[in-house]
Amino acid sequence: MRRIGLATLLTAVAAVSAPAPKNSAPNVTFNKDVLPILQKNCQNCHRPGEVAPMSLVTYQDARPWAKAIKAAVVTQKMPPWFMDAKYDSHFSDVRRLSEADVKTLTAWADGGAPEGDAKDKPAPLAFQEGWNLKPDLVIEMPNVFHVPATGTIEYQYTLVNYTFTEDTWIAAAEMRPGNSQVVHHGEVWVRPPGSKWMTGAKPGVSYSILEMPKQPADYIDVIGKFNPGLGAQTFVFGDSAKFIPKGSDVVFEIHYTAIGKAVDDQTKVGLVFAKGPHTTRYYMSYGPQAMNLVIPASNGNAEVVSEVTVGEEAKLVYAQPHMHLRGKDFEVRAIYPTGESETLLNAKWDFNWQLGYNFAQPVVLPKGTRVIAISHFDNSPNNPFNPDPGKEVRWGLQNWEEMSNCFMGLIIDAKTDPKKVFIRSGPSLLPPSAPGPTLAAIESPRSK
User: Is residue 397 scored above 60 in pLDDT?
Assistant: First the structure.
């Protein structure tokens, strides 16, 4: 995939920054002041083997990037966090730096980026090598997938010959690409016993979506996801965990993007077990998705609206918008049966850091609630990532097409049928040839 790392994005900015006198902040050092900030906010991605373009684990790692770090934090490019600050309190995983931390990093860069006394260094963080969690079980694609140097690569599906021999509850999971340069995104799906999906597939063989069409996944759960910057996912909220029925196996779905040279990938997923059984389960739903989106050529602020209606009460604990190269921003709004309206999420979109957002408190969605997604797209020549401003854009799997989805983590009663939780409604029911209405056309007149 095309990814703009910190180095590419900010080197130019740092190069033109006027250096301050090297003695402007003599008391701010890397070991005493900067390293604790990097450990808390940056090293999860900025360490060997992770998605960020450089390591910030040691002084030797970080020193060449001092000015770029300053530019990144002053402009709020880093850490990646795209939520409107008005809604930060809704979430438990806010990545925004404090004003004091920004001042410290700025003073360190302006003061010549001194290392300081080694005795001031905090102990290094202990990471699980190759993981952001400690897996109890690792399931890997049995064979490598050969990614060609060029050309369009259709979504790939690989059935893995691993069967869960008993009902299994999962506390957390992490999907790890073998080569994150070419894995645009991916999911690991639970294929429950009796499913007709992938019928006839040979375990370990990768099939394109053209050979093995994807079955509608409203009732098939996801146990692991990969997107740039997403990291591991947890499924424990109160008594909840993710449920894998006895007799299930798994399917890897991966969207590869060519990078100009032929490489191999062998992706895996790590699972952390939870004791069961549980009275509630964590279920991953597609949420609102605009399969009928139409974005006019050269439109710099095209609005797309989609909707689902809650058929069985659920608690929303996680939301992850998904768009492509023309995406600008994404809002999720709930219109409750009372007619009251509440914005749950409002974030800018960055194709290079496709974040998920964990709610600080579960949002109760009573039966009859309408969950609406409002997304905006820049299909104009002003968008430097736009593949073709002169082209009308419709829904599609590839990056030069567009999507407007929102993966949603829901807590539901363990006995609830997942098919009944979200029911497609409103503009989401329109055929692909019919553009959806604007938000104003579908909002309840009692909403506020």
Answer: yes
CB 310 within 8 Å of CB 365: yes
Global pTM reads 0.85
CA distance 355 to 27: 35
Q: What are phi and psi of 104, to 5 degrees?
A: -65, -45
Residue 251 has pLDDT above 80, yes or no: yes
Nearest to 232 by CA among 167, 170, 323: 170
Q: How far is CA 19 from CA 8, 24, 102, 114, 269, in A?
A: 20, 10, 17, 14, 45
Detail the DSSP E strand segments found in 311-369. 314-322, 327-335, 341-348, 357-365
- pLDDT tens digits, one per residue of 41-78: 999 889 887 778 899 999 999 999 999 999 999 999 89
pLDDT in tens, 364-373: 999 999 999 9
At residue 292's C-alpha, the angle toward residues 287 and 295, to 5°, is: 110
Residues, the chain: 448
- Exposed, middle or buried, 26 (CB in 10 Å: 0-12/13-18/19+)? exposed
Q: What is the mean pLDDT of residues 297-306?
A: 95
Query: What's the CA gap between 283 and 241, in Å, rounded?
Result: 9
Residue ranges of domains in the chain, CATH in brackets: 6-120 (no CATH), 137-278 (2.60.120), 285-442 (2.60.120.230)
Burial of 140 (0-12, 13-18, 19+ CB in 10 A): middle
H or E stretch covering 223: strand 222-226
